Amino acid sequence: MEHKLFIAINLPQDIKTTIRNAVDLDKKNVAELYTDAHPIPENNWHLTIKFLGNQPEEALSVIEDVLHTVVTKISTPVVSLRTLTTAPPKRPPRMIWITTITPTNEALGQLKHMIEQGLAAKGIFQKGEAHPAYHGHINIANLPEGRKIEGHVTTFPSTLTFTPATIDLMESRLDSTGATYSIVKSIDFKPSV
């Protein structure tokens, strides 16, 4: 049996609440952007670190071992969110994202690189499109084609910052209502010293 897997950092509830409030305000200010948008359920909001695609059952324990090894070698990243924007950049908008700041991208990029190296050493590779540079984002809504508004950016009054407790191996499943994500395994980041 295969599992459609990705590695992610999930959001604490207080950050989700602050994002929801920012989105509600943005909807009032730019209502036409959200017309016919398909919001992503809050329980699916996350930062993808590494997409792995379909992997066999026996890969689960190997991926977990690699994640355990990586978190012992890296400082727990600090995640800072700063803007709400249409995405992808420089193309007709198809999504609304919450984006991370440069230091977060650098820290999570290093984490992603170490995970990729550890997985490659065990013969586990991503299936699908690869992106060398890391640019963190949380997809909060999908937009219909033909959206006229692009380049929309709203900066939060203050940066939303949190230190994640875990990095999570996640599974994606499609059903009649869309994609649902579940945690296969949570690996604790080491305590900060």
TrEMBL record:
- What GO molecular function terms would the record report? 2',3'-cyclic-nucleotide 3'-phosphodiesterase activity; ligase activity; RNA 2',3'-cyclic 3'-phosphodiesterase activity
Q: Where is this motif: HXTX 1?
A: 46-49
Q: Which domain of life is it from?
A: Bacteria
Q: Which InterPro entries match?
A: Cyclic_Pdiesterase, Phosphoesterase_HXTX, RNA_CPDase
| Catalytic class of the enzyme | hydrolase
Q: Which residues form the active site?
A: 46 (proton donor), 137 (proton acceptor)
Q: Recorded E.C. number(s)?
A: 3.1.4.58
Any Pfam family: LigT_PEase
State if Hydrolase is listed as a keyword: yes
Keywords assigned: Hydrolase, Ligase
Q: Catalytic activity annotated for this protein?
A: a 3'-end 2',3'-cyclophospho-ribonucleotide-RNA + H2O = a 3'-end 2'-phospho-ribonucleotide-RNA + H(+)
The UniProt record lists the Phosphoesterase HXTX domain at 36-97
Instruction: Report the sequence similarity comment from the record.
Output: Belongs to the 2H phosphoesterase superfamily. ThpR family.
Note the PANTHER family from the entry: RNA 2',3'-CYCLIC PHOSPHODIESTERASE (PTHR35561)
General function of this protein:
Hydrolyzes RNA 2',3'-cyclic phosphodiester to an RNA 2'-phosphomonoester.
Q: What is the name listed in the Swiss-Prot or TrEMBL entry for this protein? A: RNA 2',3'-cyclic phosphodiesterase
- Recorded source organism is Candidatus Wolfebacteria bacterium GW2011_GWE2_44_13
